[in-house]
Amino acid sequence: MTVILKSLFRRIVNAVRDLAPIVIVIAVFQIVVLQQPFPNLGDTLVGLVCVVLGLALFIHGLESGLFPLGEAIAQAFAKKSSLIALLSFAFCLGFGTTVAEPALIAIAAEAAEVVALAGHIGNEASVRDSYALNLRLVVAVSVGTAVVIGVVRILKGWPIHVMIISGYLIVTALTFFSPPEIIGIAYDSGGVTTSTITVPLLTALGVGLATSIKGRNPMLDGFGLIAFACLAPIIFILAYNMIA
Amino acid sequence: MRFLLDLATSFGSTLRDVAPIVLVLVVFQALVLRQKLPRLKQIVTGFALVVVGLSLFLVGLNDALFPIGETMAAQLTASNVATTENEVVWTDYIVVYAFAAAIGFATTIAEPPLIAVALKAQSASGGAISAWALRLSVAVGVAFGVSLGCFRIVTGTPLQWYIIACYAIVLILTLFASRKIMPLAYDSGGVTTSTVTVPVVAALGLGLASNIPGRSPLVDGFGLIAFASVFPIMSVLSYSLINAKLARLKTIRPPKEL
Predict the structure, then answer these.
(1) How remote is the C-alpha of B65 from its chain's centroid?
(2) A68, A135, A173, B133: which one has the fewest Cβ atoms less than 10 Å from its Cβ?
């Protein structure tokens, strides 16, 4: 019991340290630059306690639950050595975590609005909604595909920089043929599709695979899944907008 | 009472977010893998803690930090509105760039996915990469990125030129970087922009774009996240290059007191 309490205490101390910069920045700008008092100081303090406790619990759960889970699944797939099973799992994980992502739903609706205002599609609600829904599906398929490519790369040990730089070249080429309204949204979408729970799970899966497969190095091959999951939506949104 | 309601809503939306993950895991576990996972009880408890922790974290952010951060972004961008109608002087917004850098750095340090990847990198590299150093270099990258992104909105220059230039710098740094740091560096672009950073930074971008004459929030308000995603790749690659250089200097020149 005391061991658990001690480790929880340590995590709370770490969480306070992690959150201190935000509190300092906001306090300095509020008091020194804007010269205004804090609105609802009580609410803010209660909220801060929640943030600290929440972060401490999250990190504890991460190390005791999410990381072991990702590794266990990676080992189970490596032992089973069925490529189709592993790749379909990779696709489902990428697709499933992206299609319902609130940030993506928001960005798809904004994209439909911008494209309609620019006159590229009709401005009726039904046209906008179907554009947004298709865009979401396209991005979810792109993230699923990206995770599959990332997993194949881990299995084969392909060099990541060649693949990522090629991705950048594709983005650059597509940018020249895209209207300026969609570029900002497309570039931003890469950052928002990978959620707080997906990232640790994908990382643990990648490192777990690289560790259990002979001849693969966890640092050299294990990371990189997230990089693919971030680049693919940019390419697919630009390409979708050109075709649609 | 309102707080409990907020907490319940936050818990509900976190559950909805993890539902697809749990579904995929359970289906593959039951139909494909069909073997008992080791330490199942501990994993389930840990997963539950992640959901509870994330709900608490989000409700706290929504109640305490986001309202202040968003009001602040609005006030800072509004207080500097240029007096002349069509003349926007970029130096009028120095305070905004400073705030962008500071808040970008601070929110990145608190970003849970980055903490996760940094911990994993530290253990996978056998301690060769320090989690704290990785998080600091990513945060410095985001600080530069968001600040430059604000400058771009103020000047109204096209986003693509900045991002393509960044890609070129990433390419050059990649030529010199150690292969071991590359996957981690590319990953760090995606993990930085998440729960904490996106709402505050997006508010800053929209605030700037709607307050500056001649900018439209729909076209110019976007792009800050893109800056915040590509700059950490450069900063992590640079950090590793500097580190390697320092290590080489140390081995060439023995300490003087010997």
Answers:
(1) 16
(2) A173
> Does the model's ipTM exceed the 0.95 cut?
no
Q: Which of A41, A44, A51, A237 to mutate to test the interface with B (most CBs of B within 10 A)?
A: A51
C-alpha to C-alpha distance for B196 and B70, rounded to whole angstroms: 12
Show the tokens assigned to B243.
């580190």
Q: What SS3 class is residue A217?
A: coil
B24–A218: do the CB atoms touch at under 8 Å?
no
Taking the C-alpha atoms of residue A117 and residue A120, their distance in angstroms, rounded to an integer, is: 8
Between CA B56 and CA B14 the distance in angstroms is 10
- Residue B234, C-beta contacts closer than 8 angstroms, at least 6 positions apart: B141, B166, B169, B170, B173
Q: Are B142 and B202 in contact (CB under 8 A)?
A: no
Q: What are the φ/ψ torsions at residue A56 (nearest 5 degrees)?
A: -60, -45
Compute the distance between CA of residue B88 and CA of residue B80 in angstroms, rounded to an integer: 10
CA distances from B72 to A34, B69, B79, B155 (A): 8, 5, 10, 21
**Does the model's pTM come out above 0.80?**
yes
